[in-house]
UniProtKB/TrEMBL annotation, chain B:
Highest taxon of source: Bacteria
Pfam family, one: Cupredoxin_1
Transmembrane segments: 6-22
Protein name as it appears in the record: EfeO-type cupredoxin-like domain-containing protein
Membrane as UniProt keyword: yes
Length: 749, 117
């Protein structure tokens, strides 16, 4: 039997001393390797081969109660939801068939003969039987509307059930009055509406059933994300490998993953080398090479090699779990555009009820004979046709699909408001390093003055920069490592803000930084007729960042570093510009380098030598000029500007900080994610507007027509059955239109 | 006709009073967590009374299979939670200032209020 970890919930452990007793009782069981109790949570984790019932018995013998914890996963929850939805769908379909089985033949009879009136005793008996059968339909297929309506009524609220119950109830009651007391109504009004009652109930049940099916499709994206979670992990404990459910993987556990398997939890590779397909999370199609020290993320797919990694985030803390949580939250949030519909929804049902009363009174007062029949038909039709659901569903259904669709493209939208604002962006600020460029600079040129060597300059520069986290320093360190240069110890280190650094290395005073720093320290940049300023400018014009290097007050050379532009930055920026978005680049880099990079990527507007706090000022400046500003950055440095922008986009990393602080997180490094985010926002907003327009027009036009507004002019009065059909399919239309968003594809890159 | 018209006007007045003007009695939140059952198109209880500056956990138990009942929203608190069927879901209510906080489903067909005194 394979080794498993069992989680037990303990009852009756009142004091900390119970811990030893329980652990001791478990350890005495044959096959138990390890037992550890969490007293605060009253749980105990047991590893080994002993069956769970034996463990429970051991605890019971020790004087406590225990049960096996069934850790629920999102997948289980999703399965349960699907099963519940399916059961409800089947119930509604059953009810539909019952109602239509009576309603359809009655409807056919009414259409063929045109005879639905009560004039003779035989007709009274027949219609009484049919009336009782219709009551059966109301009870079997429409009971939930009546119960819902009654409970709502007692609760001083009114909902869709209220309208349907009132509409169908009125039609049935009137028909029964005609059957029992025909003489109480005028001869022309002795008409029964049993067919309308049954058909309306059937059609609305059918509409609800189809809506459930369509709703299921709106949450496909979240299902796909949840489906990425592995169910088990191969954990190595005490040199033994065991398959455990992922809920039982602990922090710092070593986990082995073979080719073709999913990464079960987040971690850091400690052994092996592989390529991992992260496209399901980031949208990035190319597999990413992973070796010792690299991070792996739960839900991604191991392609080529076998690796062992140390678990660094488990359970609800994994990046995937956080993404799922964020998408779920965003899918349930509403953009401001939906607020008007919310306000209307809040008053809608009582307003419709009042309209039905006014309509009936108008027919009774001014209608032709038989006025009472017209009044009943118009009131019933008004109640039935009005559809608060279409209004209520217009926004959330589109948000659900849109946010999910964005997640599929590696774009995590924080909430409905961000979704809406992103569609209105007119100006986009892009940070240069790490956003437009790869953010990992490399040393490209080392230009030395006569008498100095490249190695000497690099050795001193790397010695000064050792330990610094600055990207330029890292580039120099990387080159020194590649060239196997041995470093010396630097002392008297002094970092000069926005200028450079100075230090003492091997008894020599070195100065490393920009032109300003050299001028301030009186370092001559023209050495024996060789103009190094010109050399630096020429390097900068080629999008490289030149830095002067001086030893003991004399220029020794220039080290140029370049941060390669991401492969697809140019095409992504073009996509933004084509959409009429003003693109502005901000960088702390020098003006010449910034100019060269901007030129390469096709940005005409850029600001160089910007300090982090100035980025926020630039955002404000653009907002004052009337722009809706998007800010894209990759680091905590950009946080103030990201927060101030109308929409902040965090790029690339997918770390907790980025996910929690940005309005929109782009899971892959490419700027195409930015263009995709804006495109999906625009498509979603368009879809919401279509839905809202349809729902408003439907209700605004449908209710007056049902009340009979066209009758005086055109002689048209709507049949309640038509109203029932329209109502049943209005919400389905909204959900189906939202589902069209699933076909949305971001523009080809 | 006059009687019918008067009856109609009274009916309209009753609708306005019953659904808009009448303030139903709220259920006082006790020391134990309050359970709100979502069933047959309503939250029960739907009007909850809480003391200001207190935190509370309200447990929602959805017994209504209708998908409308699935999402619980408290817009003023930016709470939006999916309620699984037949499983209690705890909603944490932070300390709030005096006032009324509406909670409802996505379509506002199920409605309730938290009143803070």
């Amino acid at each position: 039997m394979s080794c498993v970890v069992t989680e037990l919930i303990i009852d009756g452990a009142g004091c900390a001393s119970c811990v030893g007793k329980i652990e001791g009782a478990l350890k005495a069981v044959s096959g138990v390797q390890h037992a550890e109790m969490n007293f605060a949570q009253r749980t105990v984790s047991v590893s080994g081969t002993a069956p769970s019932d034996v463990l429970v018995q051991a605890i019971e013998r020790a004087g406590y109660n225990a049960k096996v914890s069934s850790a629920e996963t999102d997948t289980d929850e999703l399965d349960e939801k699907e099963q519940a939805d399916l059961a409800y769908y089947k119930k509604l379909m059953r009810e539909t068939w019952i109602a239509l089985a009576l309603g359809a033949p009655l409807m056919a009879y009414a259409l063929i003969t045109g005879e639905m009136s009560v004039n003779t005793t035989t007709e009274r008996i027949v219609w009484l039987i049919i009336g009782i059968l219709t009551l059966g339909v109301l009870l079997a297929s429409g009971r939930h509307f009546f119960v819902g309506a009654w409970k709502s009524f007692l609760n001083h609220s009114a909902n869709m059930d209220t309208l349907i119950a009132l509409g169908t109830g009125t039609a049935w009651l009137y028909s029964m009055v005609v059957v029992f007391f025909p003489e109480a109504v005028p001869a022309q009004a002795r008409h029964v509406y049993f067919e309308a009652t049954a058909i309306i109930i059937g059609l609305i049940d059918l509409g609800l059933a189809l809506e459930i099916k369509a709703r299921g499709r709106t949450s496909e994206a979240i299902k796909r994300l949840i489906g990425l979670q592995a169910k088990t992990a191969r954990v190595i404990r005490d040199d033994k490998e065991m398959d455990l459910p992922i809920e039982h993987v602990l922090l710092d556990d070593l986990v082995r993953v073979r080719p073709g398997e999913k990464i079960p939890v987040d971690g850091e590779v400690v052994e092996g080398h592989t390529a991992i397909d992260e496209s399901m999370l980031t949208g990035e199609p190319m597999p990413v090479e992973k070796a010792k020290g690299d991070e792996v993320v739960a839900g991604t797919l191991n392609k080529t090699g076998s690796i062992v990694f140390r678990a660094t985030r488990v359970g609800k803390d994994t990046a995937l779990a956080q993404i799922i949580n964020m998408v779920k939250r965003a899918q349930n949030s509403k953009p401001p555009i939906g607020r008007l519909a919310d306000v209307i929804s809040a008053f809608f049902v009582p307003v419709v009820m009042i309209t039905a009363v006014i309509s009936a009174l108008a027919w009774l007062n001014f209608g032709p004979t038989p006025a009472i029949a017209f009044a009943i038909v118009s009131a019933t039709t008004v109640l039935i046709i009005a559809c608060p659901c279409a209004l209520g569903l217009a926004t959330p259904m589109s948000v659900m699909v849109g946010v999910g669709k964005a997640a599929e493209a590696g774009v995590l939208i924080r909430n409905g408001e961000a979704l809406q604002t992103a569609s209105k962006i007119t100006a986009m600020i892009l940070d240069k390093t790490g956003t437009i460029t790869l953010g990992s600079p490399k040393v490209t040129d080392v230009v030395v003055v006569s008498g100095r060597t490249e190695l000497e300059v690099l050795q001193l520069a790397a010695s000064v920069e050792a330990g610094s986290e600055h990207p330029l320093a890292l580039a120099i360190m990387e080159t020194a490592q590649e060239k196997a240069i041995e470093l010396s110890k630097a002392s008297s280190f002094n970092a000069i803000t926005a200028r450079g650094v100075e230090a003492e290395v091997d008894g020599r005073r070195v100065l490393f930084g920009n032109e300003k720093l050299m001028h301030e320290r009186d370092v001559t940049l023209n050495v024996a007729g060789d103009d190094f300023v010109q050399k630096a400018q020429s390097l900068a014009a080629d999008a490289k960042t030149p830095m002067y290097f001086a030893i003991d007050g004399k220029l020794a050379g220039i080290i140029a570093v370049a941060d390669p532009i991401k492969e697809d930055s140019i095409s992504a920026i073009q996509r933004l510009q084509k959409n009429g978005i003003r693109v502005i680049m901000l960088t702390g880099d020098n003006r010449d380098t910034a100019k060269a990079v901007a030129k390469k990527v096709g940005i005409s507007e850029f600001v160089a030598e910007v300090l982090p706090e100035d980025k926020a000022k630039k955002v404000q400046e653009l907002q004052m000029a009337g722009e809706v500003v998007g800010m894209t950055g990759d680091g905590i440095n950009d946080a103030p500007a990201l927060a101030l922008a109308n929409v902040g986009f965090a790029i690339g990393t997918g770390t907790d900080v980025a996910i929690e602080s940005a309005d929109i997180t782009l899971m892959r490094g490419s700027l195409h994610g930015l263009a995709d985010a804006i495109a999906v926002s625009k498509a979603t907003l368009r879809n919401i507007k279509q839905n809202l327009f349809g729902a408003f027009v439907y209700n605004v036009a449908g209710v007056p027509v049902a009340a009979g507004i066209l009758y005086p002019v055109l002689g048209i009065l709507m049949n309640p059955v038509i109203a029932g059909a329209a109502m049943a399919f209005s919400s389905l239309t909204v959900v189906s239109n939202a589902n069209r968003l699933r076909l949305f594809k971001a523009q080809e890159h | 006709m006059l009687i019918i018209n008067i009856a109609g006007v009274i009916l309209i007045a009753l609708i306005i009073w019953w659904f808009w003007l009448y303030k139903p009695q709220a259920e006082q939140m006790g020391d134990d967590d309050l359970v709100v059952v979502v069933e047959n198109g309503v939250y029960k209880p739907s009007h909850i009374l809480m003391d200001s500056n207190d935190t509370h956990d309200i447990t929602f138990l959805r017994k209504d299979a209708s998908p409308c009942a699935e999402t619980l929203m408290i817009p003023q608190l930016e709470i939006s939670e999916t309620l699984p069927l037949n499983k209690p879901t705890k909603i944490h209510i932070p300390p709030l200032g005096a006032g009324e906080y509406a909670f409802h489903c996505q379509m506002q067909m199920y409605k309730g209020t938290i009143s803070i005194k």
